[in-house]
Automatic annotation (TrEMBL):
GO terms for biological process: transmembrane transport. It holds the Pfam family BPD_transp_1. Keywords: Cell membrane, Membrane, Transmembrane, Transmembrane helix, Transport. It is found in: Cell membrane. The chain crosses the membrane at residues 20-47, 80-99, 111-133, 215-235, 267-290. Belongs to the binding-protein-dependent transport system permease family. This is Sugar ABC transporter permease.
Length: 298
């Protein structure tokens, strides 16, 4: 009798739990799962508002990988992601190491706030401000270059400098996020172990490479994965600064997708580009997960 009562109680609790979860699951299914499924289906079709839906199989994917312009944009995205992730995480780690030391509290909080503040500002606002910094005729950067007797640099209108300019702005905006996370990781390294290493005469580099780095490696790995996912989807900063130009020198897959969908009205082809982006992010994440088994040591 008691066993039967407990079974009914567990079932009632389970039903109550499912009812609580149901609204969130429905929202997730309608606004996340359903669009993903529709996008995958559309990627195998040609869809036009006037002529309707036509099944074309892998034609959209073949077009993407055989079109030189699409491959150039694909390369732009990978190049931006690699450089942005590398510098964001590396500079964030350097700042975290610099600020994870004894100093007056007001000074410490000032530096942390100063480096983190750009993170909470919308990327659109940051991009507009930096577009004035990069202005060829009236920009602050070129003003000081001219003052020093150096030639002005076409930061946003030259294919040689445009991608570099966007990466610099991206690092300025986002590195503070990784700095804060890595400071928290550094504060979790056991102090007695660090003190013992110093007493044994270990150099700062040896202490960092043999003790600190292994302890923070899981957090460092998280930063790399998080930064990679964001960098592969870069959109607004490029749109505002260069519009993807000059030519296609800074155009990313996200911008290409939007252009094809809403300017060219090729929704099926745009859907295939979005699926390629999803698969690319998935592959890079899997590679990083596999690599983490060797790199993450704690």
């Amino acid at each position: 009798m008691a066993r039967h009562y407990r079974s009914d109680l567990y079932k009632a609790q389970a039903r109550a739990g499912y009812l609580f979860v149901l609204p969130s699951f429905l929202l997730y299914a309608v606004f996340v799962l359903a669009p993903v499924v529709v996008t995958i289906i559309l990627s195998f079709a040609y869809y036009d508002i006037s002529f309707g839906f036509f099944w074309v199989g892998l034609e959209n994917y073949q077009r993407f990988f055989s079109e030189p312009r699409a491959l150039t944009i694909f390369g732009n995205t990978l190049r931006f992601a690699f450089l942005a992730v590398t510098f964001n995480v590396a500079v964030g780690l350097i700042l975290a190491l610099a600020l994870n030391r004894a100093m007056p509290a007001p000074l410490l909080y000032f530096f942390r706030l100063a480096f983190f503040l750009p993170v909470i500002i919308a990327a659109a606002f940051v991009s507009v401000v930096w577009s004035y910094f990069y202005s060829f005729d009236f920009g602050v950067i070129n003003y000081y270059l001219s003052t020093l007797g150096l030639p002005r640099i076409p930061w946003l209108s030259s294919s040689q400098f445009a991608m570099t300019s966007i990466i610099i702005m991206d690092v300025w905006k986002n590195t503070g996020f990784f700095m804060i996370i890595l400071i928290a990781a550094l504060q979790g390294v056991p102090r007695p172990i660090l003190d013992a290493a110093r007493m044994d005469g270990a150099s700062p580099w040896r202490t960092f490479s043999r003790i600190t780095l292994p302890y923070i490696s899981p957090v460092l790995f998280f930063c790399v994965v998080f930064a990679s996912i964001g960098a592969l989807q870069v959109f607004e900063s490029i749109v505002i600064l260069t519009g993807g130009g000059p030519g296609d020198a800074t155009r990313s897959l996200s911008i290409y997708l939007v252009d094809e969908a809403f300017s060219g009205f090729e929704l099926g082809y745009a859907a295939s580009v979005s699926v390629i982006m999803m698969v690319l992010i998935l592959i890079i994440t899997i590679i990083q997960l596999v690599g983490s088994r060797r790199l993450v040591t704690h």
